[in-house]
Design brief:
Domain EMC1 first beta-propeller: 21-410
Family: Belongs to the EMC1 family.
InterPro entries: Beta-prop_EMC1_1st (IPR058545), EMC1 (IPR026895), EMC1_C (IPR011678), PQQ_b-propeller_rpt (IPR018391), Quinoprotein_ADH-like_sf (IPR011047), WD40/YVTN_repeat-like_dom_sf (IPR015943)
Number of helices: 8
CATH superfamily of the domain at 37-220: YVTN repeat-like/Quinoprotein amine dehydrogenase
Structural class: mainly beta
Helix content: 10-25%
Subcellular location: Endoplasmic reticulum membrane
Largest sheet: 6 strands, antiparallel
Oligomer: single chain
Keywords: Endoplasmic reticulum, Glycoprotein, Membrane, Signal, Transmembrane, Transmembrane helix
Length: 982
C-alpha cells in the first residue's frame, strides 16, 4: 500500500507539472524570425522635434518603414501589395507620412508615430504617366494645407487632413509629360513643367486654390531634349539636348520661357564620352556625370552656367538640405576600394566644407548607390551631419562622426533561390561540449535551471534561463550534429550576393558579393537565376569543401549571355566564374558525379544545345555512356506548347567545342490558343525519397505510380486569364493534366467548369494538390489527384516472386504503356494561397503535411489525410482503422496549425523544406521580406525525446523510486522478522 500511495503521488506531481507548463518559453529554441525592409528607394528624416529621431524610407519591396536613427531598428513597417509600387513618399504637417503608389493612383497618409493609416484616396486618371508628389509646408494662413499629386495625366489637389480631393486638372489632353511641380514660396501659383514632345518645353501656371489654368506657355527647342529636366531653382531648369553635348538652361519666370544653351566642351576642356544629367536636386546648381567624374555647374541668376568643380570617382550625390538661417548643403560620396569618403559641401560657397570624413566599410558591400544627409546639433551647439547610405548589395548604413553607427543587411529581403549545405564534421580532438563560459557562469546556469524545475525561480530568473537556452553553444555550433538540425542555408539575393545563414540561430556565417554579378563593360544588367549544389563530398573527405553553382544571365532576354559562378560553401570564396558564356534557358542537374564528387550539369541554351559542366574529359566520358538516356522537356507558355527532347550526339565541330551536345525533339503537345492557355506547372523534387511503393487500402494493396517523369500542367480558357471575377462562370474552364515527359503521353486529364486561376500546385510521390478559385461557389478550392500503377496490381503470388517471375521484378520503362488509375476529390478552402510546399524527410516514412503560405503571410500546416480522395461521409470500420477521416465539404483550419504562430513572414514568396537526419523531423524555411525558420515533426517526434523533456524531473523520479524501494524493502524485512518471532 505504501508503494502504491507513493507512486500515485509521483503521478499526480508529474501531471500537475505538465499542465502548468507553457510553450511560450520555447519560442526561439527551434525557430527564428528576422525582419527586413529591402533596398531603400527614398528616405525622409524626421529629427526636428524632441523625442525619437527617425528616418522614414520606402523600398523596392514596396515597404514603408520608420527606422530608429540610434540603432537602425524598425519602429513600424507597412508592406504594400506586389502590384502597389511606391512612387513617392514625404512627411506632411510633421505628423503624417504621405505615400503615392500604383502609378500615381493611390494616395495614403500614415500616422508618423505608429504607422497606422489615417486616410486613403483613389486618384483616377486616363493615361499612364510619371508620378509626382508635392507637399508644400503652407500655402497661406487663410488656406488649408493641401497635397499636390500628378499621376495618370491628372493633377490633383488633396486635403492632407482627411484626403478629400479638392480639385483636379486634366493635363493628359494637353499632351504634356510633366517632369516637375514647382510651388514658389509665399505664392498661390503652381508651375507644372514638362515636355510636350522631344522638341517642345511646356509650362502651365495653375491656381492652387481652385485649379484654374492661369497661363500656358510653350516654346520649341530645335535640338530636342533627352532625359529628365533638372530643377536648379524655383524658376530655372536645366536639360540636355538630344545629342547629349549641350546643356540648356530654361527660365520660366511668370510663365515666360527663355532658352540659353552652352556646349559641354566649352565648360570642360577635352570633353568626350556620354554626359548624363543626375536627378539630384541641388540648390542653384546641377551635376553632370561624364564617365566616372561629376561636373558641378552653377546656374546664375541670369541663366548662364559656370563650372564650379570636377570631382573624380563620385558614386552618389544627395539632394540639397536646408538648415539654419537659410543655409543649404549637400553630400557626395567618393569610394576607393573599402574606404568611403564623405564630403558635405555648401551649395552657396563651393569652397566651404561642412564635413569631410573617411570611413572603412566591408568591401563585400560593393559600391555606394544612394546617399541621404541630415543635420543635427552637437553638444557645442555647432551643426553636425549624418549620412544614410544605400550600398550595391542593398544593405543600409548610417555614418556619423567618422564611423558606421549601424547597418542593416536588407538584401536578404529579396532572396531569389535557396539551397543547403552540411556543416563540416567535428574533427578528432575537438570537444563536442566545448566550454565557452567560466566555471562560475556554468554553476550559476545550472542553479537557475534547478530553481526553474522546482518552480522556485523568479520572473527575472526565468528570463535569464530563456536567454541562456537561446544562446546555447550546442545549437549554434559550426559543426554538423547527429540529428542533422544544424546546416547552412545558402541564399542568393537579387543584388547578386550570397549569404550563408546558420539554421541554429539565423546568424550570417559569411556573405559574398559575387564578382560575376557586378555591373561591368561586358555585362550591364546581371541578374541571378538559380542555385545548384555543385560539389558535395562525403563526410570522410574532410579536405574537400562543398561548393555551389550560381547561375545567372546578363539581361532579361532568353538569348542573353549566361553567368556561372562557383563558390565554396564553407568559406564563401568565389572559386571561379565564367562570364559571359552561352545563353541559359534551363539547367538540368544530372544523377552522376565525377571522381572529385562534382555533380554533372547539362545547361540548355536558347538554341536547344546542351553544354556539359564540369568541362573535363572525365565528365564527358561519364556523360557519353548515358548519351541516349538523357531526356528533358520545355514549356513554352507564350506559344502554349509542351515539348520533349533527347540528347543524342555531340555538336558539330564548327559550332562549339567537345562539351556541346545536340538534342532532337521527340514529341510536342500544342494547346489551341483559342481554347486553352497554360498558367501553371509542377513536378516532383528530384531529391524526394519514397519509402514504399505499396499502399494498403481496405485489405487490398495499391501501388503508387512514382515516376519522376510526370508533369502537372494547368490551363484555363483565354477569357479566364484575368483577375478573379473578370469572367462569368459559364465562360471559365480550368483543365489539369498529368503528362509523362519522356513520351508526351497524357496520363490523366480533368476539367473544372466555372473555375479560374491562379493555380498553385505541389507534386509529391504519386499525388498532386492544387489550389484555384470556384466562381460558382465564390470560394477557393483545393483538389487532390492520386495516381496508381495498375500493371502491378496482381502481386499476390509468392511463388512467382520466389521464381523471379513476379512483375515487381520486371524493369520499368516509360515507353511501356502504363495502366494507371486515378482517384480525385475537391474541397473548399477559405484562404487565398501564395505558395504551397510539402514536408520532406530523410527516408519518406513520416506522414506528409502541406505547408500553405496564406494571403496573411503566414504558414499553415495541413495534414495530407485531410486531402485523401478516399474520404467518405460514413467510412467503414476498416477505413477508420486505416485513418480515413469522415468527409466534409471544406478543409479545417485550426489556429494551432499555424507554423509561424503569431508571426508574419511579410511579403511571403516561397517555402522550402529540408529533410533532417532524424526521420521524424523536417526543416522549414520561409522567405519574403522577412525570414522564418523552424523544425516540424508531422508525426510527432516518435524517434527522439523532445528538447523540452524534463530530465531533472525524471532523475528526481528515479531517485525517489530507488529510495521508496529501499525503504519498503526494510519495512518488509522487519515485518517478516516480527512474524517469525511470533
Amino acid at each position: 500500500m505504501a508503494i502504491r500511495a507513493f507512486l500515485l503521488f509521483l503521478i499526480l506531481l508529474v501531471s500537475s507539472y505538465t499542465t502548468f507548463a507553457l510553450y511560450e518559453d520555447q519560442v526561439g529554441l527551434m525557430d527564428w524570425h528576422q525582419q527586413y525592409i529591402g533596398k531603400v528607394k527614398k528616405a525622409v528624416f524626421q529629427t526636428q522635434k524632441a523625442g525619437r529621431k527617425r528616418v522614414v524610407v520606402s523600398t523596392e519591396e514596396n515597404v514603408i518603414a520608420a527606422l530608429d536613427l540610434r540603432h537602425g531598428e524598425i519602429f513600424w513597417r507597412q508592406v504594400l501589395g506586389v502590384n502597389d509600387v511606391i512612387d513617392e513618399i514625404d512627411i506632411a504637417l510633421g505628423k503624417y507620412v504621405v505615400t503615392l503608389s500604383s502609378g500615381g493612383s493611390i494616395l495614403r497618409a500614415w500616422n508618423l508615430p505608429d504607422g497606422q493609416m489615417v486616410w486613403e484616396s483613389f486618384l483616377l486618371g486616363s493615361n499612364p504617366s510619371r508620378s509626382l508628389l508635392l507637399t508644400p509646408a503652407n500655402f497661406g494662413a487663410d488656406k488649408d494645407n493641401v497635397i499636390l499629386v500628378y499621376g495618370n495625366g491628372y493633377l490633383h489637389a488633396v486635403s492632407n487632413i482627411d484626403g478629400d480631393i479638392l480639385w483636379k486638372k486634366d493635363l493628359a489632353q494637353k499632351g504634356i509629360d510633366v517632369h516637375h511641380l514647382v510651388h514658389p514660396e509665399e505664392s498661390g501659383m503652381l508651375y507644372a513643367l514638362g515636355v510636350g514632345d522631344r522638341f517642345q518645353f511646356e509650362a502651365y501656371v495653375i491656381s492652387v486654390g481652385n485649379g484654374e489654368l492661369l497661363k500656358h506657355s510653350s516654346m520649341e527647342f530645335p535640338g530636342g531634349f533627352s532625359g529628365d529636366l533638372s530643377l536648379s531653382t524655383s524658376d530655372k531648369a536645366v536639360a540636355l539636348d538630344s545629342s547629349g553635348s549641350i546643356l540648356v538652361t530654361i527660365s520660366f519666370v511668370g510663365g515666360e520661357i527663355k532658352f540659353q544653351e552652352v556646349h559641354i566642351s566649352d565648360l570642360l576642356q577635352g570633353f568626350s564620352g556620354v554626359a548624363v544629367l543626375l536627378p539630384s536636386k541641388l540648390a542653384g546648381m546641377v551635376a553632370v556625370k561624364i564617365n566616372r567624374s561629376l561636373l558641378f555647374v552653377k546656374v546664375k541668376d541670369e541663366g548662364t552656367l559656370e563650372v564650379v568643380d570636377t570631382v573624380p570617382h563620385v558614386e552618389a550625390v544627395s539632394d540639397s538640405l536646408s538648415f539654419a538661417e537659410g543655409q543649404t548643403a549637400f553630400g557626395l560620396i567618393q569610394q576607393d576600394g573599402g574606404k568611403i569618403h564623405l564630403t558635405v559641401k555648401s551649395s552657396d560657397d563651393w569652397k566651404t566644407h561642412f564635413l569631410k570624413e573617411s570611413i572603412e566599410v566591408d568591401q563585400q558591400r560593393g559600391l555606394v548607390h544612394k546617399v541621404y544627409i541630415n543635420n543635427y546639433i552637437r553638444t557645442d551647439r555647432t551643426y553636425g551631419f549624418r549620412a544614410l547610405i544605400v550600398m550595391e548589395d542593398h544593405s543600409l548604413l548610417l555614418l556619423q562622426q567618422g564611423a558606421v553607427v549601424w547597418y542593416r543587411e536588407d538584401g536578404l529581403a529579396s532572396i531569389i533561390d535557396v539551397t543547403t549545405s552540411e556543416l563540416p564534421v567535428e574533427k578528432a580532438g575537438v570537444s563536442v561540449a566545448k566550454v565557452e563560459h567560466s566555471l562560475f557562469e556554468w554553476l550559476k546556469g545550472h542553479l537557475l535551471k534547478l530553481k526553474a524545475t522546482l518552480m522556485l525561480a523568479t520572473p527575472d530568473d526565468v528570463a535569464v534561463v530563456q536567454r541562456m537556452r537561446l544562446q546555447s553553444a550546442e545549437k549554434s555550433k559550426m559543426t554538423r550534429d547527429h540529428n542533422g538540425f544544424r546546416k547552412l542555408l545558402i541564399v542568393l539575393t537579387r543584388a547578386g550576393k550570397l549569404f550563408a545563414l546558420h539554421t541554429g540561430d539565423g546568424r550570417i556565417v559569411w556573405s559574398r558579393l559575387l564578382n560575376a554579378f557586378r555591373k561591368s563593360g561586358t555585362c550591364e544588367s546581371p541578374r541571378g537565376l538559380k542555385l545548384h549544389q555543385w560539389q558535395v563530398p562525403h563526410h570522410h573527405a574532410l579536405d574537400e569543401n562543398p561548393s555551389v553553382l550560381v547561375v545567372g544571365t546578363c539581361g532579361h532576354n532568353s538569348d542573353a549571355p549566361g553567368i556561372l559562378s562557383f563558390v565554396d560553401a564553407y568559406r564563401g570564396e568565389e572559386l571561379n566564374y565564367l562570364a559571359p558564356v552561352h545563353s541559359i534557358t534551363q539547367v538540368i542537374p544530372m544523377p552522376f558525379t565525377d571522381s572529385t564528387e562534382q555533380r554533372l550539369h547539362l545547361i540548355i541554351d536558347a538554341e536547344g544545345y546542351g553544354h556539359l559542366y564540369p568541362r573535363t574529359l572525365e565528365a564527358v566520358g561519364i556523360f557519353q555512356k548515358e548519351l541516349g538516356n538523357i531526356y528533358w522537356y520545355s514549356v513554352d507558355v507564350n506559344n502554349n506548347r509542351l515539348k520533349g527532347h533527347v540528347v543524342k550526339k555531340n555538336c558539330k565541330p564548327e559550332i562549339a567545342d567537345g562539351y556541346c551536345f545536340e538534342s532532337s525533339d521527340l514529341w510536342s503537345v500544342i494547346f489551341p490558343s483559342d481554347s486553352e492557355k497554360v498558367i501553371a506547372t509542377s513536378t516532383r523534387k528530384l531529391s524526394e525519397v519514397v519509402h514504399t511503393q505499396a499502399k494498403v487500402v481496405a485489405e487490398d494493396v495499391l501501388y503508387k505510380y512514382i515516376s519522376k517523369n510526370v508533369l502537372f500542367l494547368a490551363t484555363v480558357t483565354p477569357k479566364a486569364i484575368g483577375d478573379i471575377g473578370s469572367v462569368i462562370p459559364e465562360d471559365s474552364w480550368l483543365f489539369v493534366y498529368l503528362v509523362d515527359t519522356i513520351t508526351g503521353r497524357v496520363l490523366h486529364r480533368m476539367s473544372h467548369h466555372g473555375c479560374q486561376g491562379p493555380v498553385h500546385a505541389v507534386f509529391s510521390e504519386n499525388w498532386v494538390v492544387y489550389h484555384y478559385f470556384n466562381l460558382r461557389a465564390h470560394r477557393y478550392e483545393m483538389s487532390v489527384v492520386e495516381i496508381y500503377d495498375q500493371s502491378r496490381a496482381d502481386n499476390k503470388d509468392v511463388l512467382k516472386l520466389v521464381l523471379g517471375k513476379h512483375n515487381l521484378s520486371a524493369p520499368v520503362s516509360s515507353y511501356s504503356r502504363p495502366e494507371v488509375m486515378t482517384k480525385s476529390q475537391s474541397y473548399f478552402f477559405t484562404h487565398t494561397v501564395k505558395t504551397i510546399a510539402v514536408t520532406s524527410t530523410a527516408k519518406g516514412i513520416t506522414s506528409k503535411q502541406l505547408l500553405i503560405g496564406t494571403i496573411g503571410d503566414q504558414v499553415l500546416a495541413l495534414d495530407k489525410r485531410f486531402l485523401d480522395p478516399r474520404r467518405t461521409l460514413n467510412p467503414t470500420q476498416a477505413e477508420k482503422e486505416e485513418g480515413i477521416i469522415p468527409l466534409t465539404d471544406s478543409l479545417p483550419i485550426m489556429p494551432q496549425a499555424y507554423v509561424t504562430h503569431a508571426l508574419k513572414v511579410e511579403g511571403l514568396k516561397s517555402i522550402i523544406t529540408i529533410p533532417a537526419k532524424l526521420e521524424s523531423t523536417t526543416l522549414v524555411f520561409a522567405h519574403g521580406v522577412d525570414l522564418f525558420f523552424t523544425r516540424l515533426a508531422p508525426s510527432k517526434t516518435y524517434d527522439s525525446l523532445t528538447e523540452d523533456f524534463n530530465y531533472a524531473l525524471l532523475l528526481l523520479t528515479i531517485v525517489a523510486l530507488v529510495i521508496a524501494i529501499f525503504v519498503t524493502w526494510i519495512w518488509s524485512e522487519r515485518k517478516e522478522l516480527q512474524e517469525k518471532w511470533r
